[in-house]
Fold:
Amino acid sequence: MNDVWDMLSEPFPPEELEWQVEALSKDKRRALVAPYADARAVLDRLDEVVGIHGWQDTYEVLHVPTDAAGHYAVKCRLTVMDISKEDVGEGESFKAAFADALLRTAIKFGVGRHLYRQKQWVDHDPETGKFNPPQAHLEAAVHRSRDAEVASPPIARPENTPAPPEAKPEPQELIDRLIERLKEAGLGKQAAQIVMKYGGYGKHPDETRKLYGELRALLKGQAS
Structure:
């Protein structure tokens, strides 16, 4: 079961995320943006990890607004592997309220929980309202692993002491976990072909991100 929860809580790749503005600076030239995965990405994650028969959701309408300024309120009950959790969502329409309820409930299973730690300030155009969304988890992981190599010099060991096994950088750990899941799904050969195309984990961060994206696409294709 621990493997199931780990897979549910895996970070979403950048291409599956959208960003929304939560706050603006006084001059409106900086925006605090937060990433989020839409309801479809959450449903895909559930199908991908536990299969279409491994989860179910039910909803209860709690509130219907009496005027245009009000909000709908919906309660979602999500059951994954016989474990159920509930939460309430709100929105200006039924569709928005249902989606919000699903997202909030799925977070209790770990789906998308990491996104709450990725709010960032970015440049914002006050005239157009546009901003450049930051790269999400995988790129950040690449930079963290690179910075750690620079910031942490090797530790001297006594002679004849065997070196401890080196921990893999976080992006490589994510890729390895994807490959294991692809092998379990009978897609090991296809995954190996993708890895060979990039010569391993990729020669630079851009290739690593592309490799991760192709492996994710292969896994999603199996789940659909």
